[in-house]
Specification:
The structure holds 3 protein chains of 3 kinds.
Chain A: E1 8-17, E2 20-30, E3 35-39, H1 46-53, E4 61-66, E5 69-71, H2 76-82, E6 84-87, H3 99-104, H4 118-131, H5 147-160, E7 165-169, H6 177-192, E8 196-200, H7 204-210, E9 213-218, E10 221-227, H8 233-241, E11 269-276, E12 280-287, E13 292-296, H9 303-310, E14 318-323, E15 326-327, H10 333-339, E16 341-344, H11 348-352, H12 359-364, E17 372-373, E18 376-377, H13 379-392, H14 409-421, E19 427-431, H15 439-454, E20 458-462, H16 466-472, E21 475-480, E22 483-489, H17 495-503
Parallel strand pairs in A: 3-8, 3-9, 6-7, 7-8, 13-20, 13-21, 16-19, 19-20
Antiparallel strand pairs in A: 1-2, 1-4, 4-5, 9-10, 11-12, 11-14, 14-15, 17-18, 21-22
Chain B: H1 2-8, H2 13-39, H3 46-71, H4 79-93, H5 98-123, H6 127-145, E1 150-151, H7 155-162, E2 164-165, E3 168-169, H8 170-188, H9 190-200, H10 202-207, H11 212-238, E4 240-241, H12 250-260, H13 272-291, H14 296-314
Antiparallel strand pairs in B: 1-4, 2-3
Chain C: H1 3-7, H2 27-55, H3 62-87, H4 95-109, H5 114-137, H6 143-161, H7 176-182, E1 184-185, E2 188-189, H8 190-208, H9 210-220, H10 222-227, H11 232-258, H12 269-279, H13 291-310, H14 318-341
Antiparallel strand pairs in C: 1-2
Helix pairs in contact in C: 2-13, 3-8, 3-9, 3-11, 3-12, 3-13, 4-5, 4-6, 4-11, 5-6, 5-11, 7-11, 8-9, 9-11, 12-13, 12-14, 13-14
GO cellular component, one term (chain A): plasma membrane
Main location (chain A): membrane
Keywords (chain A): ATP-binding, Cell membrane, Membrane, Nucleotide-binding, Repeat, Translocase, Transport
Chain lengths: 519, 320, 344
């Protein structure tokens, strides 16, 4: 059977942003009616690829052939008009406008007088949505719909514009299981009518449920492509994370010294049954003094949310956080900080540093009340603290008065660490502490985490860097879709076990590659 | 990588604009002083300087509060109305003596600031919208309390308005003292640091455990109190309470002074020196045009152009 | 060092804002709050009018009603333009000055004929609107500061034209312009007819044209609107232009009504117009609203003003207090409802 002509062909696509090669010679081929999984961890290049395909970014090199013709979109609108539609993770529609108007914005049917033809618009909107199994009053504002139904409207809009290719960027991240089913049936229908779908998701179950083919990106390169059925879950996870199964770790590649932490006594932090609607479903984590607990899982599994929920930055529907035996009032960051919890947020630039303030002021920010007398900042005390930490963490700045926004990523991260260490915390929650920082700084941060644990701090470590997670943690709690699916302790803290737990494969899959270290 | 880019193009537009934003106002003031020295007769006299300073003092005081609010990425449109309110309340309670009257004024102003601050910090209304209601209603309340201009005959108030120490009017001394105080608050206090952090990055400030809501409320209260001080001083100088026109367009003058002085509307940075210089710049500009028999209409057009240029220079800076 | 900036941010659900709540709006409570939002002002208007006509003999008289209608007309035209601007999420503080400028230009131009008297204010005020729009849409400056500057600039131009406000240009008695302002058709003042026509046109444009859809889309979610192909910048320029044109026209009509270009008018009119629009149910944050609401808002303000005048003992300044209070209540209610509805 000859394969049908490809609808979209991408060859040798490269895109460089200042300081990072986001895409490096990536190829991608789509045939009509193909549902193609596009996966990769953070920074792998998925978003950049999608943005290039949809005309948000222009590629530096490479070419895109769409329906047999070379194309170069310069705006999202051009791509849409040509027939490439995108559905974003967060619904990108206008909540206050009616469902029908959202569906037809920019291509409303008009009467002979040039006025909008609402009768036809409502009728057609109703038909289009019914075709996707959604029955709503199309005159109602979009926001009255549930998130799932909104996502369906976005989908209907994407398809209605005569799309030949529909890109879905994590479409299910806020859907209920029932809504996911509806989405899948729509995808199957799209496939039957010859529309190609690029499906981005981190939920393996979903990928295997709807996708036939897969492209795995890592560090801007295509590291795998082919039929999804040829790759089992473990293989998929390890390809994505860049690990060979059964690879024997001969030497530590990180600066962690190993599992020497004195993990004894009562937990300094005990979080029980943390529940946040759509995000976390009863997550429990305990950390003892001197222990580094890793949070494992893929992107979107609820790691960041767990850390934020513990630190009071995410309101809980239910669940308790107890610090050193004292229960914590939920949903209050200041209360959590007073209790001794410090969070190094994942998004350093927008949630961590205060870019316009100096290194000095950033370090002293959280501890200001303690460094002040009668509301006046004691410059001497601030200097002492800043001096100590600039030296201890080896923060490289032209002077303590340099703006933090001008520092390198690694030094910004150290400034944030200094800010929290100045608070003498009991528990440190580190969300991707070494992402986007250079090798030297990375090693220093890892060494520091070790030292802090040795000093008796409880550390929660979130990292997409498997090596870092495995070598840095005494224990790893594994999350999947917002729930704990396993915990690795002692000798079980290995990459293989971790990947197996993430993949959710049965214990003995019979996969040849696993045999080496499986015991 | 960005550093190399900057080094290879030392005279690019952003850098010029950045310099203009920070120091343009001082250069402008200096230029106007020089130009006036040359072309305006009797410019370099103590009397002239005193007049200019007395005129600019209320604007400076209001602008100080506005600078704090703008530093939190907000804006307070109600300052003119609060000035009018202060004028009415002063007139109403002056019978009990100056000090009790001032206390009542402070209570009213604090209430106004509290209302603005609560709307912004707790209800989550955009600052411009939150303060609009008081801008509309505040002057109405002032007029309800005191329907028309009323002459005031109180020796204490009179001496506040026209008295002087060593030839320097109280008005100027008070404005200068307040400017120093606010500059001190911004630079040296916990509150000042927290305020700047909140204005620069609200999410980061929240995650760092700062008392975001409390700081915001206090900022709006301080702004209202400063506007009230300006209202009382203006009333004292007039020897009359004029709720109809006192403080008209003051929000505009104050915002202009702040923005021209190099404080970006996007928050996170406050230049008190620049704010004072900004007020002085507008005052000198007006005075120059008037002294050379150019009509007030020109001043207004000139002021409009200065505002747009200042905002344009600040565009996209301050925050990255 | 921008390694994470380029690729990471869009994908992790953990990076969504932390303060969002679940969608609560069941269809019924949604419909109820929409009803209050859209027609609350109308209900208040009806009640106030009823109470007023029962309490004051002089309220529901033909003279008084027609007076109120005519004096509402000018504010209503300004509020019409403001409605468009506010629905895009912007604000136009220059309309009061443009109103005064329009009046002066019309009176000044009436010496050269009615056509000049009408076109001159439209051209000048429209041009200032274009400049406002370009500065907001292209240079991305904050609307309030741009239009605040325009307010000052327009006032300056107006003063320059009138010898610093000393000169008042008159409009000849027998011109078409004077008739447009002072005459009446079928017993209703001509400015009222013009206003009604403009509102009908405005409603059609807002509800029934693509431009209208873009206005809502830009105010509802600017980024999504851009992704969905709405011409964001063009829409913004157009609404500020429209606001300038309508303010100028209102000023010209007002001058025709008064038979002169009065220079002291228009102060605080921007606040009245904004109050009317918001009280009429248009969301100050944009994306929701309707021109009929603004008309109701204007009428409500004018009726309250009339009532306050009827109660002889009350000063007209109560008008401002009431407007301010209304504004505060409406804004708090809008924010509160909006927060409850925000989607997760």
């Amino acid at each position: 059977m000859a394969p049908p002509a490809e609808v979209l062909a991408v060859r040798g696509l490269s895109k460089t942003f200042p300081g990072v090669r986001a895409l490096d010679g990536v190829d991608l081929t789509l045939h009509p009616g193909e549902v193609h999984a596009l996966i990769g961890e953070n920074g792998a290049g998925k978003s950049t690829l999608i943005k290039v395909l949809t005309g948000v970014h222009r590629p530096d090199a490479g070419d895109i052939t769409f329906q047999g013709r070379p194309v170069a979109f310069s705006t999202p609108m051009e791509a849409q008009k040509a027939g490439i539609s995108t559905i974003y993770q967060e619904v990108n529609l206008i909540p206050l406008l009616s469902v029908a108007r959202n569906l037809f914005l920019g291509r409303e049917p008009r009467t002979r007088l040039g006025l909008l033809d609402f009768g036809r618009m409502h009728r057609e909107a109703d038909e289009a949505l019914r075709a996707h199994g959604v029955r709503v009053d199309v005159r109602q504002p979009l926001r009255t719909l549930g998130v799932g139904a909104q996502q369906m409207v976005a989908l209907a809009r994407a398809v209605a514009t005569d799309a030949r290719v529909v890109i879905m960027d994590e479409p299910t991240s806020s859907l209920e299981p029932r809504e996911v089913e509806t989405l899948f049936s729509v995808i199957r229908r799209l496939r039957e009518s010859g529309i190609a779908v690029v499906y981005v998701s981190h939920r393996l179950d979903e990928l295997y449920a709807v996708c036939e083919t897969v492209t795995v990106l890592r560090d801007g390169r295509r590291v795998h492509h082919g039929r999804l059925a040829d790759l089992d879950r473990l293989g998929l996870v390890s390809t994505m994370l860049g690990r060979d199964m059964g690879e024997v770790r001969s030497e530590g590649l990180t600066k962690f010294t190993g599992d020497h932490h004195a993990a004894a006594g009562e937990p300094v932090l005990q979080a029980t049954g943390l529940t946040v609607p759509h995000r976390l479903h009863g997550v429990s984590v305990g950390i003892r003094p001197g222990e580094v607990v890793g949070l494992g899982g893929l992107l979107g599994s609820g790691r960041t949310e767990t850390a934020k929920a513990i630190s009071g930055a995410l309101p809980l529907r239910s669940g308790d956080v107890v610090v050193a035996g004292a229960p914590l009032r939920g949903g209050s960051t200041p209360a959590a900080i007073r209790a001794g919890i410090s969070l190094l947020p994942e998004d350093r630039k927008s949630e961590g540093i205060v870019p316009g303030l100096s290194v000095r002021e950033n370090i002293a920010l959280a501890a200001l009340p303690r460094l002040s007398r009668f509301g006046l900042v004691s410059e001497a005390r601030v200097d002492a603290v800043v001096d100590t930490f600039v030296r201890r963490l080896r923060i490289k700045a032209s002077s303590p008065h340099q703006k933090v926004g001008e520092l390198s990523g690694g030094n910004q991260q150290k400034v944030l660490l200094a800010r929290w260490l100045a608070m003498n915390p009991k528990v440190l929650l580190l969300d991707e502490p070494t992402r986007g920082i250079d090798v030297g700084a990375k090693a220093e941060v890892q060494k520091l985490v070790d030292e802090l644990a040795a000093d008796g701090l409880g550390v929660l470590l979130i990292s997409s860097d498997l090596e870092e997670l495995i070598e840095g943690s005494d224990r790893v709690v594994v999350l999947k879709d917002g729930a704990v699916v396993g915990e690795l302790t002692g000798d079980d803290v290995t990459e293989d076990k971790l990947m197996r737990t993430i993949a959710g494969d049965p214990p003995a899959p019979g996969a040849v590659e696993v045999a080496a270290t499986d015991d | 990588m960005t550093e190399t880019a900057l080094r290879t193009a030392p005279f690019d537009k952003t850098r010029v604009l950045a310099w203009l934003q920070s120091y343009g106002v001082y250069a402008g003031v200096a230029m106007l002083l020089i130009v006036n020295t040359v072309i305006t007769p009797h410019f370099l006299t103590a009397e002239n300087f005193r007049t200019q300073a007395v005129q600019v003092a209320p604007v400076v005081i209001v602008a100080l509060g506005m600078a704090l609010v703008i530093g939190t990425e907000g804006v307070d449109l109600s300052v003119g109305a609060v000035m009018a309110l202060a004028a009415s309340v002063t007139a109403l309670y002056l019978g009990y003596g100056l000090l009790p009257a001032l206390l009542v004024v402070a209570v009213f102003a604090a209430g106004a600031g509290l209302a603005n601050g609560a709307l912004v910090a707790f209800v989550g209304v955009q600052p411009i919208v939150a303060t609009l209601a008081l801008m509309v209603g505040g002057r109405g309340i002032a007029l309800v309390l005191l329907p028309q201009l009323q002459d005031l005959h109180n020796p204490a108030l009179a001496s506040l308005g026209s008295g002087a120490v060593a030839g320097i009017p109280y008005l100027i001394l008070i404005a200068a003292a307040l400017a120093l105080l606010i500059a001190f608050v911004v630079r040296r206090t916990t509150f000042g640091r927290q305020l700047l952090a909140i204005g620069d990055s609200r999410p980061a400030a929240q995650l760092a455990g700062l008392p975001v809501r409390r700081v915001l409320v206090v900022v709006y209260v301080v702004c209202a109190l400063l506007a009230a001080v300006a209202g009382v001083l203006a009333t004292a100088r007039l020897q009359a309470s004029d709720p109809t026109s006192l403080g008209n367009l003051m929000e505009l003058s104050a915002i202009t002074a702040v923005v021209v002085g190099g404080t970006p509307l996007t928050g996170g940075r406050i230049s008190i020196g620049g704010t004072v210089a900004g007020a002085v710049l507008i005052q000198l500009l007006t005075a120059t045009l008037i002294k050379h028999d150019l009509p007030p209409s020109w001043t207004q057009i000139a002021q409009a152009i200065v505002i747009v240029c200042a905002v344009y220079a600040a565009r996209g800076r301050g925050k990255r | 060092m921008t390694a994470t900036k380029t690729d990471a941010p869009t994908t992790a659900p953990g990076e969504q804002p932390a303060d969002e709540t679940e969608p609560v709006g069941s269809a019924r409570s949604e419909r109820l709050s929409a009803l209050v939002q859209q027609h609350g002002a109308l209900a208040v208007l009806v009640i106030v009018s009823l109470v007023a006509s029962l309490s004051f003999d002089s309220f529901a008289t033909g003279d008084n009603v027609s007076n109120m209608a005519t004096s509402s007309a000018f504010l209503a035209i300004v509020a019409l333009g403001m409605t468009f601007v506010i629905i895009t999420g912007g604000i136009d503080l220059s309309v009061g000055s443009l109103f005064a400028l329009g009046g002066v230009l019309a009176a000044w131009g009436s010496r050269h004929g009615t056509l000049v008297a009408l076109l001159l204010p439209l051209a000048v005020c429209g041009l200032i609107g274009v400049v406002n729009g370009l500065l907001v849409a292209r240079s991305r400056l904050a609307p309030f500061i741009v239009t605040l500057a325009a307010m000052l600039g327009a006032r300056g131009v107006m003063l320059a034209l009138t010898d610093e406000g000393a000169e008042t240009y008159l409009i000849g008695k027998d011109s078409f312009l004077a008739d447009l302002g002072q005459g009446s058709t079928l017993g209703v003042g001509n400015p009222v007819w013009v206003t009604l026509a403009l509102f009908v046109a405005g409603a059609v444009v807002l509800r029934r044209t693509r431009f209208g859809q873009h206005v809502y889309a830009v105010g509802g979610n600017e980024d999504a609107a851009a992704l969905m192909g709405a011409p964001v910048a063009r829409t913004k320029v157009l609404v500020y232009t429209l606001s300038g044109l309508l303010a100028g026209l209102a000023g010209a009509l007002n001058a025709a009504w008064l038979a002169s270009g009065v220079t002291i008018l228009g102060g605080g009119m921007e606040l009245e117009a904004i109050s009317a629009v918001v009280i009429g149910g248009t969301l100050l944050t944009g994306g929701l609203g309707h021109v009929s609401g603004s008309l109701v808002g204007v009428l409500l303000l004018k009726v309250i003003q009339n009532v306050i005048n009827q109660i002889g003992s009350l000063d007209s300044s109560y008008q401002q207090v009431v407007s301010g209070a209304f504004l505060a209540v409406v804004v708090i209610a809008q924010t509160w409802l909006g927060r409850r509805r925000r989607l997760g």
